[in-house]
Each structure stands twice: as C-alpha cells, then as structure tokens.
Amino acid sequence: MEKTAQTEIHRETAQIPPVNILLADDSPEILLTIQSLLEKEKLARVLSFPSATESWEWLNERGNAMPLLVPDLIILDLNMPGLSGLEACRILKSDPRFKDIPVIIVTASPDIKNLEEAFSAGASDFIFKPIHHIELLTRVRSALLLKSETDARKARERELLAVKAELELANQELADQASRDGLTGLANRRQFDKRLYEEWHRARREFQPLGLLMLDIDHFKRYNDTYGHLIGDHCLQQVARALKGTISRATDLAARYGGEEFGIILPNTPLKGTMVVGQRILSHIRMMGMPHQGISATAILTVSIGAASIIPSVSGKQDQLIKAADTALYHAKNSGRNMLVSADQVPQS
C-alpha cells in the first residue's frame, strides 16, 4: 500500500519542473533526511542551511542578486538557535520580494498553539517530526503546486495588464489620429471646434479673456498652380511647423481650420497678448523666405492674420469670437495681405 502511494506521488510530481527549495534546520540529521528524500525524487534542488539566520542572510544578499536561485518553497524548523523559524517566517512574509514564497514549518511539537502561531506568521503548511517521507513529499508537492498556480495566475495578470496597456495606448493613438489633421499633424477642425467650446465655457466661468487668431496663406491657389499640389502640401506642413514652433503654452492649440486656413486658440489671453503671438507668427513665416513665384520672381510666401479676444458673456457663443477674428482676417486680406489686423482695428459698419 505504501509503495503504491509513493509511486502515485512520484508520477504526479514528475510533472513539476525543477525548482529550488531552501531548507533550514539546526539538526544535521533532519537536513540530510529531507534533502535526500527530495533530491531522490528529483523534485527540487535543495539549498540547506544549519540555521534560519544563515538562510536569511543568503536569501537577502545572494538570492536577491541571483533571481534564478530564489526558492520556490522554504522549509523551516520551528525552533532554532538565534532566529527561530517562526520569526524567519514573519520576516519573509513582510518582505515584498519573498512574501509569495510558501513556507512549511517543521516541528516536533503537536502543540496547537505553535501551529496557530505558525499559520498566523504566514506559514502555508507544517510537517511533524520524525519525518515521514510520504507525508513530506505530499506536503511539499501541494506547496509547489500552489506556488506554480500562483505564479501562473500572476503571469496571466501581468499579461492582461500588458494587453490592457497596449489597448489603452492603441485607443489613445486612434483618438489622437481622429483629432489630428493627417497632412499637417495639427489639430483638425473637429478638435478645434471641441476645444474652442470648452475654452469658451471655461473663460466664461472664470471671467477670463479668450484669444483667437485666424490665419490664411496669401495667394495659396497661385502657389499650388505654380508648384503643384505636392509642393503645396509641403508648404502647408511648413506653415504648420512654424505655428507649432511659435506657440509655447500647453493650453494653446493650433489647428488646421480648413484648406489653407488655420486657427490658434489662446486661453487666458487678452487682445494685446493675442497680437504679440500673431506678430511672432507673421515674422516667423516671413523669415522662412519660401519663394512664391506665383506672385513674382522675388516674392516670398506670406500670411494674413486676424486677431480677436473676448471675455465671454453668459448670453454669448463661441461663434462670436470666430466671427470677430474672421472679420479681422478678411480686413487684412482686403488691405493688402501679409499683415496682422486686430478686431478693434476693423472699421465699424
């Protein structure tokens, strides 16, 4: 009967991959007995120590530097000189590096109080002395299977977290793509309208000015006709790059409003500050010196800009700000282009 049970244990444990077991006992006979039985069954590599203190020092120093040797199971004698098995178990379970390693307590005492203390300290099982090899193998096997299942569950959790992170990143990228203009990389019209709505209502709540620049590339149709649409697309990208390089605050937003027209939302910015940003953009694009032979042999690419800033009222709508900046842009166009005009410079009709 005993031989049959031992054969069954060996058959089931043969499926467990090689593992490490740390063993600490002040009895050389117990150390030899446990180590011999486990290694005979080819169940594990056994790292044995004559005291809990030495086993902890090894685990804390060498084991941390050599993760392949960190044990899958720890077997501790309950009563050892210096650091007891009970105290060592408490230390292990309080350390995040080792808290998931199952601990089996070996004891010669059947005192229920000792067992309660062992379980309270974090032990997962116990073995009574004298050591009976079938009991030892059975309890070790159970602990190793538990550890294997725990590791597998944690691996699945890590995989799920990784997949979740990848999905979140993919969703963020899709959302970002949905809010970006494919050619220039700036915010698209949809994102512009959404942000302007949000900033308008925020400015209204906080009674803060909201600035807006509307920008249009001068004679862009002639540019396309002269150089072709491929170079025209490159021109739009260069202007977009200039806008990105000009606005510096994270709250500002540059967007492709449509065709060769762009919009720049400037939260908490009065008209004077809006004009400063507009003038910087105007100068930046002039300094780029991009030839525009659709106008003349010496002409360069320029833009016209309309600027407006409003402290939103309760009854007002964001269209009011767009209209003011757009009217100023129209005035800049009609006044000769290549200039910045503010809404308060537009003659009242």
Helix percentage: 40-55%
The first-level CATH class of the largest domain is given as Alpha Beta
Report the portion of residues in β strands.
15-25%
Radius of gyration from CA coordinates: 38 Å
What series of H and E elements makes up the topology? Answer: HEHEHEHEHEHHEHHEEHEHE
Please name the fourth-level CATH homologous superfamily of the largest domain. Answer: Reverse transcriptase/Diguanylate cyclase domain
The CATH architecture term of the largest domain is 2-Layer Sandwich
CATH topology of the largest domain: Alpha-Beta Plaits
User: How many structurally independent domains?
Assistant: 2
The parts where pLDDT drops under 50 for at least 5 residues are: 1-16
Give the beta-strand count: 10
Chain-wise SSE layout:
Blueprint: H1 2-13, E1 20-24, H2 28-40, E2 45-49, H3 52-65, E3 73-77, H4 85-94, E4 103-107, H5 112-121, E5 125-128, H6 133-178, H7 189-206, E6 210-217, H8 220-227, H9 229-246, E7 253-258, E8 261-267, H10 271-288, E9 303-310, H11 318-334, E10 340-342
Parallel strand pairs: 1-2, 1-3, 3-4, 4-5, 9-10
Antiparallel strand pairs: 6-8, 6-9, 7-8
Helix pairs in contact: 1-6, 8-9, 9-10
